[in-house]
């Protein structure tokens, strides 16, 4: 109808109809959308990125906080997203790319449960079983990426989505339902999916051919950069696991300089009373992930073999 609100982003996008806005990032707005050609009725998610050229003139003052991305960055995001989500249920599936004069459109599988971030806010913190259920799936996604020589570089609760599973017990069983919400049986969290490949990067891989011809002229840091780059994702997983278990992040300071200092020293604590009832196994895993020296930090295989991660596997998804 004529009363329908027209998103400015819609005007140049022809085969999808944008529905509700479901998310916002530093560089984008994300909408639920449907294919209006009727080929596929399944709703999708479309990340709309404003092109640089329209920012300066057409966008109002108010919209100026939405930054643009360069074409190269967007192409990199698409290529990596497509590669990592192929045959991998633990990353949101990449569907396609479109562009218009003003926008880039990145179409992906819609994940309906929302962000793990919001689930932490809702539950305050996760039980150890529920935290394990989540990070195991993130770790499988990261292993898949690291094996391809790709580092994500932005692992955080905002970039983890989940498919909800409904409460299966008897209706009216308030105690069972409360337990469920606290994590028994998955807490309503089914498949967890890593998303947002905007900062992801292909790293030089020893097993691959040299990307730029002769190896003789390649500097040592090119060869050394691989393990160190992969380690940033392990730090990210450590921050996520810490946050899931207690409800607040390991490093927090209002001042940017103070925060950077704390991170560089690995200055975090298992504060009472929040950490009193959390197992030493979980703390041990975090200690190995939040290790300042990247050469001593857990790599993805170390983490997947961690005794705490493997100590209770009734919620663990099967590794495919
Ligand atoms: P940015 O790179 O700007 O951070 P993201 O790709 O992280 O953008 O998307 C921003 C937010 O939009 C996400 O945190 C999430 O809440 C939502 N979102 C993005 N993609 C999807 C999707 N496929 N399904 C559901 N929600 C999504
Ligand atoms: Mg994001």
TrEMBL record:
Keywords: ATP-binding, Nucleotide-binding
Protein name: Protein kinase domain-containing protein
First and last residues shown, out of full length: 101 to 420 of 507
Organism for this UniProt entry: Saccharomyces mikatae IFO 1815
Residues covered by the Protein kinase domain: 16-309
Annotated residues for binding of ATP: 47
GO MF: ATP binding; protein kinase activity
